Structure formats: structure tokens, C-alpha cells
Amino acid sequence: MNEQFRACMEKDSDAFSAKLQNCPRDELYLITQDYLKPYLSYIKNNKRLFRTATENTAVLGLDKSYDRMFRHVFTPILDRYGVLQQDRPYIMAFYIRGLMAIISEWLKNDCTDSITYVISVIQQCVKKPQSETIYSQKKLHN
After folding, report:
1. Nearest to 45, CA basis, from 11, 8, 10
2. 78 exposed, middle or buried (CB, 10 Å; 0-12, 13-18, 19+)?
3. Quick one: DSSP state of residue 70?
4. Percent of the chain at pLDDT exceeding 90
5. Which pLDDT score, from 0 to 100, does residue 96 have?
6. How much helix, strand and coil, in percent to the nearest 5, is found in the chain?
7. What's the per-residue H, E or C state across 8-52?
8. For the chain, N or C: smaller number of CB within 10 Å?
9. 124 φ/ψ sector (left φ>0, alpha ψ -120 to 50, else beta)
10. Could you read off the pLDDT of 23-65 as tens digits, one per residue?
């Protein structure tokens, strides 16, 4: 299942990692059609499999997949925004559980709403960051 999902989402991972290090911060916002549409399409096309996976994350080893995503995607983004190490588990738990709540609701309704609509709901919840640092260490910890 992990291999099938990776193939669906496949991008040149080396180029993607390099991009995260060097691109303008505006391009670090991954809540876009380009990223969400293949993800949601995979879920919609594999509803039963995805329901089973979310209900049995430990058995299926999904934590390892999330660990890789954290290392190669989220950590470089959080580094670029200067998010403190101690804040990261809380912030990422908020975002991932929020995203999964929307997806779970969509699955509960048998993915009847369009992918475009679900993307718009996710984008309403996860606003695009401003050009300045999202989590200024001074603002949060002074």
C-alpha cells in the first residue's frame, strides 16, 4: 500500500528536497491543488483501503511513512520558518489531525463531495502563511 501511494504521489524527491531548501518561502505552502489533488484522488480511488489503513495505522506501519514525510518535507519547511524544536510536535499534531479529521469526514460521506470542494475546505482551515515568519521565536517565547 505504501509503495502504491508513493507511486501515486511520486515527484522527483531529490529535486523536491532541494527546492524546499532554496525556494522562496511562499512556495513552501503545500496546501495547493498540485499537492492535494493527487493525494485526495488516491484516497477517493482507494476508499476501503484508506479506511482500513487509518483504523490500523500501527499494524500497517503508517507511522514510518509519516516519519519519512516529517524528515524530508515538514522538517525542512519548519526549519525555514524558524519554528522551535519544542513547538514542532504540537504544531504538526494540530495540522495532521486536522487534515485527517477533514478526510475522515469525507470518507464517512463516501467521498461524495468533489475533490475540489474538499481542497477548498482544507485551504480555508490552513491559511497561506504571510511573507514574514509564521512562528516568530520572539513572539511566542518572550
Report:
1. 8
2. buried
3. I
4. 27
5. 85
6. 75, 0, 25
7. HHCCCHHHHHHHHHHCCHHHHCCCCHHHHHHHHHHHHHCHHHHHH
8. C
9. alpha
10. 888 888 888 898 899 889 989 998 988 888 777 665 455 556 6
In the block, cell 511566542 appears at: 140
131 — phi, psi (to 5°)?
Answer: -70, -25
**CA quadruple 52, 56, 59, 65: dihedral sign:** positive
Higher pLDDT, 9 or 53: 53
Angle at alpha carbon of residue 104, lines to 100 and 5, rounded to 5°: 65
**Residue 31 CA from chain centroid, whole number:** 8
Neighbours of 43 (CB within 10 A): 22
